[in-house]
């Protein structure tokens, strides 16, 4: 199907650095090499198992996807960045993982083939879309999932009112731990995120989840900026209708 002219090219939102092989080579170090064990355990605790299929949207270098491949039946690792996909493919081959399928696509362009999946995972990627396209992306995620399927969403989401936003942003930027950008996220990185990325408010995101047909099973916030949602797709009808 031809891509509509009005649909954004998600590589335009990805940030030039995520398309740069040199940056990608140091990406895990900058991210702090987050341990995916907690995410895998959360999915396992809700019935995702050794025969399940999981789609990882915004898979990056495969921090989650590579670990998930050892826990679940099949993992589809979706990312718009060719550099990220190349890194992930090499890492999967080096580990002898044959059940990871890299796909170059994004939230708005991934076209799933086959039966509805058991779970969708996405970490620090949805914020790259403006809110109207976040809502579309969440609708598309719901359509990927079987009824009762899970969405595990981790991202930067602001748990505050508009009046509280600037004080919260000042506090967040001032609290950046890294001095060297290669070692983590600096105050300049956080400030750039606030200027150029599309993180949204909690009170906007949660109605989007509801409208897409998700029940929030658990939500956790750290520092009123970092959010983690475990959601279940409810019902068997097309979500978002009505």
Automatic annotation (TrEMBL):
Domain of life assignment: Bacteria
**Coiled-coil stretches noted in the UniProt entry, renumbered to this chain:** none
Domain Methyltransferase: start-end pairs:
54-149
Q: Does the keyword Transferase apply?
A: yes
One of the entry's Gene Ontology molecular-function terms is: methyltransferase activity
> What does the record list as GO biological process?
antibiotic biosynthetic process; methylation
Q: Please verify whether the record's keywords include Transferase.
A: yes
Protein keywords: Methyltransferase, Transferase
What's the protein called, per UniProt?
Answer: Class I SAM-dependent methyltransferase
Question: Source species, please?
Answer: Streptomyces lonarensis
